Amino acid sequence: MRTEKEKMLAEELYIANDEELKRDSKRGRKLLRQINQTTEDETKQRLTLLKELFKQTGESIYVEPPFYCDYGSNITIGENFYANTHCIILDVANVRIGSNVQFGPRVGLYTAGHPIDAAVRNSGLEFGKEIEIGDNVWIGANTTVNPGVKIGNNTVIGSGSVVTKDIPSDVIAVGNPCHVLREINEEDKVYWEKLQAAYEEEKTQA
C-alpha cells in the first residue's frame, strides 16, 4: 500500500494528518524558524539553512525573511533566485523554479487544493498540483499563483495578479484572472539596453 506522502506527490487525494508528513512538516517548521530569525549580518548562515530546507538549489539564491512554506523538501530552485519579503510557497506538490527568477514582496505559490464537495473536503482529504516557473521570470508584488500553473521563460507577471492558468514565454501578463497583455518585443530590448548603456557610461565618467 502506498503512503500518504506518495499519494500527495502523485497529485492524488491524501490525508495530511499522517505521521510521516507530520515529521516532514516539523522539520520544515524548525528550519523556517531558524531562517526567519537570521539577521542582515547572517546571510551565509541563512543560505546554508535554505539549501538544507529546499530539495535542490543553485549556488546563488537569496530569500528575504520572513519566508513560509509547507515542507521545503518539494521545492527546486535554479541559479540567481531572489524572493522579497513574505514569500509563501505551499509545496504539497513539487514546485520547480528556474534560473534568474525574481519575486516581489508577498508572492504566493500555492500547490494545495481541496475537494469542492463539502462532505469529501470535511473528511480531511486534500490534493496538490505542481507549479513550474521557467527561467528569467519576474513576478510582481502580491501575486498569487494557483495549483497546476506553468509560467514560461522570460515572462513578467504584473503585481497583484492571480494566475489561474498557464502563461506562455516572452509575454507581459497581468490581472485577475491573469491574462497576456502583450508579447515582449524588440522595442523593449532596444529601450532597456539604451538605458543600460547610459548607466554604464555615467559610471565610467564618475
From TrEMBL:
Keyword annotations from UniProtKB, A to Z: Acyltransferase, Repeat, Transferase
Signal peptide range: none
Pfam families reported in the protein's UniProt record: Hexapep, Mac
Ranges for domain Maltose/galactoside acetyltransferase: 5-59
InterPro entries: Hexapep, Hexapep_transf_CS, LacA-like, Mac_dom, Trimer_LpxA-like_sf
GO MF term list: galactoside O-acetyltransferase activity
Catalytic activity, EC: 2.3.1.-
Top-level lineage group: Bacteria
Record bears the keyword Mitochondrion: no
Family: Belongs to the transferase hexapeptide repeat family.
Protein name: Acetyltransferase
Organism: Pisciglobus halotolerans
